[in-house]
Design a protein that fits this description.
8-stranded mixed beta barrel, two-stranded antiparallel sheet, 9 helices, 40% helix, 423 residues, alpha+beta
Length: 423
């Protein structure tokens, strides 16, 4: 459904762009009674299309040459288009007929029609590129203000510890943040958390959708209004009490929502924000990033990894899951992990291949643990496991054992601090 929505939005945009450029040209020709050759007509349309495309690509932060799987197709289509244009010019040697002749033979009706198409096309572009982002930013700003003011409230549950100690101040801060989430439920009772990554624009409420409609907030904001930006929402397999919570959000190519999650596939980005906040109605906490991985959702791209899990059958089941997460990580963070930890995942669409996802995995800072991370230990993982389609051979290398127990016994796991499978 999400892919269809994106394809439909992109298709409508380019249809409107083409109609806009064509209509503008036809109106100009008709009003000026100019004798414009077909060569100049084609050039005009292409220049307008290129300018609009360049602005769109820059604004939406798209890849100039497409994703890896699209580049060969785009190159072939460009060559075919060039050859078609050369053939067309050769076939229409006189070149001063075609479009301009057709327009000059039409009356006011078609001139009006072209004008209407142009105005409507321009209006849709303005709504898509200016109005909708503005409305989204306004709504986000409103809820951020409410959250910020709620977090500064004086109505904090008393903490029984010595006055002016670091521990009491810390506990008071966490309680303020938890109560801030609770106060947001007066805006929408489905708001059950807040996620914030310093140094990024990720600073949003987290919503828990209805049990009978787990994708309710996929294309709705926290006001329950329809929007292509959607909300950050908890996966239907999870609750705020789950050992592993999965948060979904769109990677909007204009930089909004979870777009910046994709950049955490590099050690440099993780170093800039190795710890982030994720507060729920039950507790406020910091979370240390342990893994950032990419995975596929189509089985023809390689073996599927089901990371949409909330709870586990046993400690062994849980550590097997964490092992599958860690061996896929593009970054070594130096943060340890064991069967007693709780984790949260930030999951978003990625564009290397169709249906790809980029996922940040972080574990909760333990009681009494230092919330900082030694960033000097954060490095690129040269042995990260990607889906089969990532590799030129079409098959992932056979580096990692299938089972966590074997990896531990072979000395391939340096991040595990639990007691399973240890002599």
């Amino acid at each position: 459904m999400e892919m269809i929505q994106k394809l439909r939005s992109s298709g409508v945009f380019w249809m409107i762009t083409s109609a806009c450029a064509f209509s503008l040209m036809q109106v100009f020709i008709k009003l000026t009674s100019a004798s414009v050759s077909v060569y100049l007509q084609v050039l005009f349309r292409n220049v307008v299309g290129i300018l609009i495309s360049a602005i769109y690509i820059k604004k939406e932060q798209l890849l100039w040459f497409g994703s890896k799987q699209e580049q060969l197709f785009l190159f072939g289509r460009s060559i075919a288009g060039f050859l078609g244009l050369v053939t067309f010019f050769y076939a229409s040697r006189l070149g001063n007929v075609a479009d301009v002749t057709i327009v000059n033979r039409t009356g006011p009706f078609f001139t009006t029609l072209f004008s209407v198409i142009f105005v409507v096309s321009a209006a849709v572009l303005v709504i898509e590129l200016i109005v909708n982002p503005y409305v989204t930013d306004k709504n986000v700003g409103e809820i951020q203000k409410i959250y910020s003011e709620a977090g500064d409230t004086e109505s904090v549950t008393p903490v029984s510890s010595e006055d002016d100690t670091a521990d009491s101040e810390r506990m008071a801060e966490l309680e303020r943040r938890r109560e801030a989430v609770l106060k947001l439920q007066s805006v929408n009772s489905d708001i059950t958390g807040w996620v914030q990554l310093d140094g990024t624009d990720i600073n949003f409420p987290v919503l828990t959708p209805p049990a009978d409609d787990p994708q309710y907030y996929l294309y709705r904001n926290y006001k329950k209004e329809s929007t292509k930006y959607g909300s950050i929402f908890l996966d239907g397999m999870c609750t705020v009490d789950s050992d592993n919570q999965v948060l979904h959000g769109h990677s909007m190519q204009d930089g909004r929502m979870f777009w910046q999650v994709i950049g955490f596939g590099s050690a440099k980005t993780v170093k800039s924000c190795p710890v982030f906040r994720y507060d729920t109605e039950k507790e406020a906490a910091e979370w240390k990033i342990v893994s950032v991985f990419k995975t596929n959702t189509y089985d023809n791209q390689g073996e599927l990894f089901n990371y949409l899990r909330g709870d586990f059958d046993s400690a062994e089941d849980k550590m097997q899951f964490y092992y599958d997460v860690m061996k896929r990580s593009m970054v070594n963070t130096g943060v340890d992990l064991n069967e007693n930890d709780k984790t949260v995942m930030l999951s978003t669409c990625s564009y290397e291949y169709e249906g790809f996802r980029t996922v940040i995995v972080a574990r909760k800072v333990r009681d009494g643990e230092d919330a900082t991370v030694d960033t000097s230990k954060i490095t690129e993982n040269e042995n990260a496991l990607y889906p089969d389609i990532w590799y030129p051979s079409g098959k992932a290398p056979d580096y990692w054992p299938d089972y966590f127990e074997d990896a531990v016994q072979n000395g391939m796991v340096d991040w595990y601090t639990g007691n399973l499978y240890k002599d």
